[in-house]
Amino acid sequence: MSDDPTTRKPLALVTGASRGLGFAVAEALAPTHHVMAVARTVGGLEDLDDRIQSAGGTATLAPLDVTDDGAMQHMCRSIHDRWGGLDLWAHTAIHAAPLGPAQMIAAKDWELSWKVNSEATRRLVAYVSPLLTARAGRAVFFDDPRAGQPFFGAYGATKAAQSALVASWAAETQRTGPAVAMLAARPMATALRARFFPGEDRGALASCADEARRLLPEILGRS
């Protein structure tokens, strides 16, 4: 057996791992999984790695943009070549466009929302699915239903498209795998939520760490 410590634990890929719920989910998984953490923000990934290592866990950091097709292909090929597959994929990467009336959505905000929230999800489903199938793995996503709410046009529409795609994938793989789940987190004190509700009492919101711990059985499929 290999003495590489990263091969001794199940492998969890967390996309959007540098802050918020993704950071907390990666940290919550680290005691039982080797975590491959993907995000654009190098500093956030390094902070995550420090916390995981201080608790005795291991992580592989991948400072990549989920909208970069070549980078995602290379990452998934590297996972295949090094580990042979994935046990878990938790997708938390999201873009929050500025709120505003539908007729005033800027083209650049719409395009980036679509690239991150919808197109990157489609691409990753295609690339990650074989890796999960190789290990009878599981994919989890996190719902935030804003479609149709006033001023949420760009975020609500592109997040709804992501949710619809995930629901179809889940229905298609019920018998064949991989297992696919869409989970609902409670309102959390994240930077994303602060952009949407700047005057909100953040003391009444859940912490990302608490939500990650609460959702961990569902993330692992043990609820």
UniProtKB/TrEMBL annotation:
EC number(s) per entry: 1.-.-.-
The keyword Oxidoreductase appears for this protein: yes
Protein family per UniProt: Belongs to the short-chain dehydrogenases/reductases (SDR) family.
UniProt xrefs under InterPro entries: NAD(P)-bd_dom_sf, SDR_fam
GO molecular function: oxidoreductase activity
One Pfam family recorded for the sequence: adh_short
Organism the protein comes from: Tropicimonas omnivorans
UniProt xrefs under SUPFAM superfamilies: NAD(P)-binding Rossmann-fold domains
This protein's name: SDR family oxidoreductase
Keywords (A to Z) from UniProt: Oxidoreductase
